[in-house]
Structure formats: structure tokens, C-alpha cells
Specification:
Helix content is 36%, strand content 16%. It is α/β, with parallel strands linked by helices. The protein has a single domain, classed as Rossmann fold, CATH 3.40.50. It has an 8-stranded mixed beta sheet with strand order 1-2-4-3-5-6-9-10. Strands 7-8 form a two-stranded antiparallel sheet. Helix 6 crosses helix 7.
């Protein structure tokens, strides 16, 4: 890895930690759950070498960035505002925004709400999702003995207590569970449903005996584990606890399209790619994102797109960035 500098900036009322390298047009990289700026380590170096200023913040609630206590301080408006604040702190009028997982959702909304600041968007794993007819938690799968993980996360305190009991084991299992290089456990649904008896703790040891995949080293795992041992998981989980609030807040933007150039990259073994609605959204993306390129689907790649397939993602991003006007 080349030299990556870290520093704190003031953004949207927060102390925000950013990692950065390079000079040139600004590219802001937004991570997902449960990660940090470090998930973009391969992209920061490649973008800098190609003549771009790559900036990856620890997002609100993560790593070296402030983690407000109130759940309602993690709405989509706060998260997009944080990225606008990054541009302001850096003295930049516009940037390309790139996101993965939850960061992809933020990136899409940054492009949707502030196309004057975000001139293009690249999304990994999560396609653009227009506002649904019903609030999200009312349609999440539930059975008598299990709940969809996003619904399970809604109760404050429970999920973070289970994850924080052993942060390294929690991160290790989550990264392996959703990796395209790790074989599925027979009879398991991956990560989607959490048993109500035993909760997350009942599942966190399922991959303990498996070796790390080639894309993940012990040092990488140590980095993530140390960060979450220090901060806990509450900040990241609070993003999920605003799903219904975000749905209500976005009513004024119902039907609005993303009108900037867009790139979408996913893996064919990604959990999100397997969700029932995702294929329709990907296949018909230009209805809602008219300037979208053809989707890039990486064979054998799981959920951790930019880490599992760094070279392919870097190539796709650089090709997209070089194609943009100006």
C-alpha cells in the first residue's frame, strides 16, 4: 500500500477522520457496515496513482469520526450532509462520489439530492432504490423464530451487545460469511435471517475454523477489530434504525431520478444481488438513472466488492472516471 495520510476535518458539525492520497479531481469514497475508510485502501492508492485526489472518510459513527448518541442523528440527510461537508472542508465545489453497501445508498442519495455538488456516482453492491410504497420495516421478512437482520437491528442495545462481546470474532465471521470465496454453510441462509433465540451470538462462530480468504489478511482483520473494539457498533447500527424515518423524510423526492453519470458494480455471489428486488432494479436501472452505464457483474465475487476484487474494481472506476466530461 502506498502512503495514505489521515487527518481530522470539521464536517457538518462533526469531527470527521479522513484518509487521503493524491492530487487532482476529487473522488470521495463512502464505506458501509461494518467497515471504515480502510475498506478503500486499494482504491485510494490506485486513484492517487492515476491523478485523482482520493478521500475516504470514516463515516458518521465509525472509527475516528464522531458518533452522536441520538439515533435520529443518523438520517440520510445527515449522512449526505456529511459528504457535502467534506467537499466544503476541502474547498472543492464538486466531486465524484463512490459508495459501497450503506455507503452506496448514501452515494446514490448524494447524487439524487445534490447533483450540483456530486457530478457523478459509482455504486458497489447496492443499486439505486427508489422510495418504496410502504415503510421498510413493515415488509421485512419475519417468522416465529427468526427475523430479517435489518429488522433485528432495530432494537437499540441488543445487536451491539452481541457484536461487542468479541469484536474480532464478529468482524471475522461477517467478512467471511459474505465473501464470494467462502463456501456456503449447508442449510444456512447466509446472513439474512437472525434466530430470535440466541440472536447474532448463535451464528458468529460458524466460520471460526475456516482460513481467511486471499483478499483478507490477519493484519487487515486486526485493523477492523481494533477500530470496533474502540468505538463499538452502535454508530453503524443506528443507520439501520433510521430506515423508516428516511422513508418518511424522502416523501418530497418521490419519483425523482438520479440525473448524473453513474456506474454500478456488483458480484454474482453478493447477498444483495440475490435479494428478490435487486435484479429488477439492476436490469431496469436506466429508468431511474438515465445516464447509468451497463452494470458490471463480477463472477465469483461476494459482498466486499472493492476488497475481494480490487484490480477489477479499480479498472472499472478509472475507466468510468476518465470518461466523464471535464
Amino acid at each position: 500500500m502506498g502512503p495514505i495520510a489521515q487527518r481530522d476535518i470539521d464536517s457538518n458539525g462533526l469531527k470527521m477522520r479522513i484518509a487521503e492520497a493524491g492530487q487532482g479531481p476529487l473522488v470521495v469514497l463512502a464505506h458501509g457496515f461494518p467497515e471504515s475508510w480502510y475498506s478503500w485502501r486499494h482504491q485510494i492508492a490506485a486513484l492517487a496513482a492515476a491523478g485523482f485526489h482520493a478521500v475516504a472518510p470514516d463515516m458518521r459513527g465509525y472509527g475516528g469520526t464522531d458518533a452522536p448518541e441520538a439515533i435520529e442523528d443518523y438520517t440520510i440527510f445527515h449522512l449526505v450532509g456529511d459528504l457535502v461537508g467534506v467537499l466544503d472542508a476541502l474547498g472543492e465545489a464538486r466531486a465524484v462520489v463512490v459508495g459501497h453497501d450503506w455507503g452506496a445508498n448514501v452515494a446514490w442519495h448524494a447524487a439524487l439530492l445534490r447533483p450540483d455538488r456530486f457530478r457523478a456516482v459509482a455504486s458497489l453492491s447496492v443499486p439505486f432504490r427508489p422510495r418504496a410504497p410502504r415503510q421498510p420495516t413493515t415488509v421485512m421478512p419475519r417468522t416465529g423464530d427468526a427475523a430479517f437482520y435489518q429488522f433485528y437491528f432495530q432494537e437499540p442495545g441488543r445487536a451491539e451487545a452481541e457484536l461487542e462481546a468479541d469484536p474480532r470474532a464478529s468482524i471475522r465471521d461477517t467478512l467471511l460469511r459474505l465473501s464470494g470465496d467462502v463456501p456456503a454453510i449447508p442449510g444456512s441462509d447466509g446472513f439474512s435471517m437472525v434466530p430470535l433465540q440466541g440472536g447474532l451470538a448463535a451464528r458468529l462462530g460458524e466460520h471460526a475454523a475456516l482460513p481467511l480468504p486471499a483478499w483478507l489478511s490477519e493484519a487487515d482483520l486486526d485493523h477492523y477489530a481494533a477500530a470496533f473494539a474502540r468505538t463499538g457498533f452502535r454508530g453503524g447500527l443506528n443507520w439501520y434504525r433510521n430506515l423508516d424515518r428516511n422513508w418518511a423524510l424522502m416523501r418530497a423526492f418521490q419519483g425523482r431520478r438520479v440525473e448524473v453519470p453513474a456506474l454500478f458494480v456488483t458480484g454474482d455471489r453478493d447477498l444483495v444481488y440475490g435479494f428478490p428486488a435487486s435484479r429488477e432494479l439492476i436490469e431496469n436501472m436506466r429508468r431511474r438513472v438515465p445516464l447509468a452505464r451497463d452494470p458490471v457483474v463480477l463472477p465469483g465475487c461476494g459482498h466486499w466488492t472493492q476488497q475481494e476484487r480490487a484490480a477489477e474494481v479499480n479498472a472499472a472506476l478509472l475507466d468510468f472516471l476518465r470518461s466523464l466530461p471535464g
